[in-house]
Amino acid sequence: MKAPLPGNEGARIEALRRYDILDTVPEQAFDDLTLLAAQICEAPVALISFVDARRQWFKSRVGFASAETSREGSFCSWAITQPDLFIVPDALQDERFATNHLVTGEPPIRFYAAMSLMTPEGHALGTICVIDHVARDLNARQQDALRALGRQTMTQLELRRQLAQPAVERLRETESKYKLLVEQASDGIHTYDFDGNFIDVNPKLCEMLGYTREELLRLNVKDLIPAEDLAVAPVRFGELRAGKTLLKERRLRRKNGTLLPVEISGRMLTDGVLQAIIRDITERKQVEEERTRLLHSLEEERARLASLFTQAPAFVVVLRGPEHIYEIVNPRYMQLIGFRDVLGKSVREALPELEGQGYFELLDEVFRTGKPHVGNEMPVLLQREPERQPEERFLDFVYQPMFDADGSVADIFVHGVDITDRKRAEEALRESEEWLRAIFEASRDGILVEDDERIVYVNKSYTSLFGYDTPEELIGKHVSTLISTQDAERMLEFGRRRARGEPVSSMYEFKGKRKDGSLIDIEGSVSAPTIAGQTYITTFVRDIAERKRAEEALRRAKDELEERVAERTAELSLTNVMLLEQIAERERIEAALSESEARFRGVFENTTIGLYRTTPDGRILLANPAVLRILRYTSFEELAACDLQRATHALGYSRQEFLERLEREGEIRDLEAAWRKADGSLAFVRESAKVVRGSDETVLYYEGTIEDITERKHAEEALAHVRNRLMTAQEDERRHLSRELHDEAGQSLMAIAMRLQRLENQLRAGQFDRFSAREEIVQLRSIVQATQRDLRRTAHALHPAALEYFGLAKALGGVIKEVCADGHVQCSVDVPEDFPRFTPAVECMIYRIVQEAVTNVLKHANASSISLSATVHDGVAAITLGDDGDGFDVSDAKAHGGFGLISMRERAEIIGARLDISSSGKTGTMIKLHVPLEVAGAEEFKHQDKASGSKGEQDENENSNRGRPRTGTPEHRLTAS
After folding, report:
1. What is the pLDDT of residues 47-102, one digit of tens each?
2. 474: exposed, middle or buried (C-beta count within 10 Å: 0-12, 13-18, 19+)?
3. SS3 call for 767
4. Engineering a disulfide at 114: which of 129, 436, 637, 952 sits with its beta carbon 3.0 to 4.6 angstroms away?
């Protein structure tokens, strides 16, 4: 940004010329003033500058190479517009100078302060200024000194003006002195014309360049400048002719071809001749380069040391003298003591809380003896905040004496580290390890850790599961010891692939081999945590023999039921699905627990199993978030307010009986109890607990786990209710079906058997007649077809029990989920819970249509996925079944369709519904059933449902026809161990 011109610019330029100061030789008086300015203001650069129309010329300079610079872009051009001090603390942040080449170049100007040189008439001739390469400011003392130096500079100018002799009287003397000065000058001086031809040279220039005077007079100034330098910076004869004084650094070629660095000051003399003063700056260049290098190195070292001191992870302090006065402290120490004002104070004054802790005496001992002191894990009480109690911290530190030149102790250097967090973390880690070890040992699941297929850890549950007495019997053995022969290679390969980082299922089943050689069904969950760069295989196992037996019993019951009544498969399968869902949910929770335990600290916060710890007198010491969630408490404090001494177990145990059994047996596993939630309702839990004793065998506390089984309890009650209802319905159906089959199908089958026996007798007796046999077969086919019609009629008459107990929506979902049970077909169900209810007959027809459609998909479509959805729009309920299997020709199927399609269409027509079927070999088959609500009696049913719902509690007692099992839980009190 260009500086504005002063309002009196013309008069100011004229006043500057009257002082006749421009382009004069250096004078000691002015040099003394710049030196004082640099020292007082502690700046590397100080200048006395005079600003004319196009340049600023320096009468005196300290730390600055050039004798003049252009006025445009100069700081002094701004300073002369103000009568008082002009200060720029940080030029890089000042929009007037941020892009100035003097700021962005090297070395940069960051700080600038100047005092205008003001004549008695009010004309600013220039400035006395100081410059620094870092952002800073002047204190009040330095500002006053700079003003005084400005006044002294003007006094020197006035004195110089008054002492000047008239030019005419001293002309000859001046010329004589000038000639003598030129001849004896230590700088090279020459005159030349506007074409650059030498007119005169002094001896020093000849000496500098290695030419004789005659040789130089035959040359042009351009002959001494390298061509590449002239191309970049040609000689500016035009500016010299205009009266401008030029100052420039160049390289001149000596006679021997070497290059000489010089500073050239050129101007035009009064007689129209150009004059140049050439100064050899070789030594100055070397000094400047060395100085720049040293300054750069020094700044780097200062920055490095400052960074180390400021950012050091340890605290650093220097204490001066026998009183231990704080002289230097770093931020880490201030953080340790609570950011108190300590500099200049003694340790006793700054940290009075150390009295009686022995630290004052240690400092005195180090200062007196000159021997260092090392403290490790030293406890100290510090008043880190004014209104709080002293806080205990732990320190590792060194008191190191620092000696004067005479060998006496002058200071104490303190260096140390606050290890409080580390020490507390170590204590917390030890407590956490003990806590997790207790959890592992209390876990019902067996836990095994292996390294390179060798057992390194097993808990008690694992040892007991496999029939061993102690974990030590298994430590160090190969993991195949616990795996059956037929599963060993498969399981070992799983572990090897997992150790290589390959994707392997984390859940699997295998046959475990117990100590006595017997085999057990095991379900395992595996993880591979990496600790300190070492990967360990961790396996959580549980005995699933009971579950296997239950599954096998369920399978047999299902097969038996399918053999007797095929139409009842959906209802029983739905029950099976519910059981499988319960088992799957249980497995998911247990798998989550196993994974959470493997993550150590995460087990406490994230496990779904409640973990607690209580004292013998009933105080709750610890409870994880799972306990709060199970009991519906919002905070641990709210839970801790419970009075456990007066709480009782709801399932037959008072707390006192529970505690007596716990102390007598040492451990209780899988006790089912009821705990009272915060809202007063009951949560059914499965509880395990153990006693933790101290070294003197006194009871320290009880700890244990609780698992929320409320939903399972309710489900079991509901399932038992439904199972009783189903059994009653099944017996009724069996009696009805027995009569139907005996009276109709049984007689037909007996007739078939008798005719087949007669054919067999004829064949044995050799009386076989092909014609009569053919007639017999035709009659048998007729009987079979009649029997089929009877069975079909009987099947149509049966009403699925799932519709009665669970409703249409869940019954349809049960049909689909039964297909998904073996995992070969992916299924999705989207039937809303509020889907309309129809009359029982209509719902039975809808159920049979969907059941028949699913059966056809499984038999013929070879599908990998099935979807079922239901919607209601404009008074019509739409039920859609789709698959991605093999399609078929719908037109051909209508003409020659099998019994399945015919049966589906007949049922749709009976209830006044429309059945649409679309099929393609590429996209599978889509079957949509449109059931008008009004025709199917849905509105009447909904009206009845609403009427029954208005009876309040009666709805619960009389709603069995809609499949809503009754639930009820007796009131119990909260109990905890």
Report:
1. 999 999 889 999 999 999 888 888 988 999 999 999 899 999 999 999 999 999 88
2. buried
3. coil
4. 129
